[in-house]
Amino acid sequence: MTSLKKVLQKKKYIKIKLKRIATNHLELNAKINGIKGRFILDTGASNSCVDLDLITYFNLHAEESDTKAAGAGATDMETQKSTDNTLQIGNWKTNKSHLVLFDMTHVNTALTQHNAKEVHGIIGADILEMGNAIIDYNTMVLYLKKEPLFKSKTVFKEDKIQLPF
What we know:
Elements: H1 4-10, E1 13-17, E2 19-20, E3 26-32, E4 35-41, E5 49-51, E6 63-71, E7 77-89, E8 92-102, H2 105-113, E9 121-123, H3 125-130, E10 134-136, E11 141-145, E12 160-163
């Protein structure tokens, strides 16, 4: 029987190791604009996000946004956005990463209260869709298609952004 890993390698997928943290979330390392960060992988977050306090750290160009963020821990949070960023996860890379910027204090507070480390942001469904993602929970591996899929629509999913906390 052919393994999932071999099938996906033939289809030009890139293997990215995941780590299960104390809260049972999946965590991965990524680079935004060449700067390393720690991120939660969240299939339920419509957009990838970064903490507002890290705009300078990740060399982001922030713009105003009418979008409100919502999650299990907060609603109607003010956001900003940053478009056309370089995002690299392992050997997978896109120059078309659009990020939602919001105050992630409640997210990081929840993590640290459960003995997990703070994160810089969230990798959401937008990137998972772009990378035609497959998550192998058995081996704790994320597979992303080497060539990102780009849709003609390069705007944020507006109105409310769903977050994990």
